[in-house]
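re: ur question from earlier - yeah i can do the single chain one, its not a big deal. heres the input i used so u can compare w yours
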Amino acid sequence: MKAMKWMAAALALHGIGCASLPNMDSSMPIEIDHGFFASRYKQAGRPIDPGDMVARLKQEPSAESAASRGEGLRVVSSVMASVAGVLIGWPLGQAIGGERKPIWALAGVGAGVFAVNIPIAIWADSSMDSAVEAYNKTRTFSDDTTTEPEVSTEDTRTPGARAGSTSPSGPPGVFGFAFGASMEASAAACRQGGHTWSEEEGAGRCSGAPAEGLAGAAAQLDFTDGRLTAVELVIRPPDDAQGWASAFRETEAVLVRTHGKSKERTFVVPDDCKAEERFLACVAEGKVTGSASWSLDDGHSVALSIAGSPPPSTIRVRARSGQ
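and the output i got, formated as tokens:
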């Protein structure tokens, strides 16, 4: 029962609409506010009408493709969310109404539809975020404090050079570190980013990533013959099911925006793990699994995974040099 409630709550959060919001102002940049299961768009800190924003983005050559794709995926996601909500809500309504034998099988089907809808919703949000970034990149605004986003479109970025960076002037390489760099240079990059550096048995550890993008991530660096060959970001999500799901979604969304759609992706939540009180235990036991991988143009690779052990359970993002 509790599982149905938290899934229904997530569906409700995903489907919340924006009524009587102001239209988009073409003289101002668009801000992206990442919320639970959705991105909200603002200007000057105030939410704007998403429908009007999409219509205007589709008129921009640099943003039209991503905006159209995001709009189509959101329609599919909304339909699936509605179907899942009906299937989950029907037996709940029966139970509240005193029905002796609610059709709980419908709720199970609804939970399955909801699970299938998660990657579609992520792709939709990522596509729309890319459209917004393209719009901000190619327009000139009167506010001198406007910062340009990392890339103009998903198809024109240079993945290896921009992985983990939020601006063209950010640190080079992956997550602010450069493959092939010495341990001393990597330590300097870490400290310049305001983080703490430590070394152990030929490996390095940075308390954060010099380049922005994945908040709260600690970096583990591997060296071969004194040169950097791999960087692994370790992210510890909140200790609750919804916080965990949100952290995984946000991490994957950042990687999709940076590198495009993953080459391979799997995410499995067994039926006995869909209850909120069981989810984290299932992650620790290795029953909940998830992974995605990207092959970059420069030969480097990036992989996203869930690590249930050793405790505490973490989300891992590993970038490996192709040389």
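The helical segments are 2-15, 50-57, 64-96, 104-138, 159-162, 183-192, 241-259, 276-285. not sure if urs matches, ping me
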